[in-house]
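Lab notebook: predicted structure, single chain.

Context: the supervisor wants predicted structures on file for every construct in the current expression panel, including those that have not yet been purified. This is the next one on the list. No modifications to the sequence; it matches the entry in the shared construct table.
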Amino acid sequence: MRTWIVAGNWKMHNTSTEAVALAKAIKDGTAALKKGEVVLAPPFTALHSVAQTIKGSSVALAAQNMFYEDKGAFTGEVSPVMLKDIGCTYVIIGHSERRKYFHEKDTDVNLKVKKALAYGLKPIMCVGETEEEREKNVTRAVVGRQVKEGLRGVENIDNLVIAYEPVWAIGTGKVATSAQAQEVHAFIRAILKENYANAAASIRILYGGSVTKDNIGELIAMEDIDGALVGGASLNADGFLGIIKNIADMK
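Prediction complete. Output recorded below exactly as produced.
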C-alpha cells in the first residue's frame, strides 16, 4: 500500500514572516495525523525559517527547484548541497512553469533528478501536457517522453515521486476529471513497469492542477492517484488542511 502524500507549492508567494505563520498553522493542523506525508515548498528566501518552524514535526521541507552542480560560478542558482544543509527532504523538479518561463528541457530535468537522488533528496518530478497538446490527442506522447527522458540513465527510483500536472489545469480553475487523471496516472505507472518492474508499484504519483478540498475526493479515489501537488490552495491553511483531511479520510 502506497503512503499518500500532499505537497504545497507556494511558488513566488510569502515573505519569511508570512511563511512562518502559514507553516505553523499547517504543522499544528496536521499534528494528529497517523498516516500520510505532508510537504511544504516555500520560496528559497523562506526555506530556513520554515525549516525551523516545522522542526520536530512530521511535516517535510521541499525546495521548488535546484541546479545540477554541487557548487560553482552559477549566479542565482542553488545547489543540492545547500538544500540538504538547510533541511530539505524533497525538491520539485521540472514544474511546467520552469519549463515554460525558464525554458527548462527534458535534459535539464534529467540532470537535476540524477543530482537530487545522488544527494539523498527526493525529487518530485513534474510532467504534463498543454491544452493544445491535449486537443491534438498527443497527451501520451508528451507525458511519455517527459517521463522517459526525465529518468534516462536513472537506475534506482525508490525515492522518486512523480506529479502529473496538466498544464491547462494549473491556476486556471479547470480540473481534469477523475477518469482523465487516472488514465494518465495509469499510463505513467505502466511506463515505470517497463523499466523498473520491482519499484513501479510503490512509486507515488500525484495529481496537480487547481486542486481544492472540494474536488480532491473524487480524484484521490482513483487507484493510481496517491496524493496531490497543490498550488494556490496551499497558500491558505484552512483550504490546504481541508485537502489533507479529505485525503486522509479516504486513504
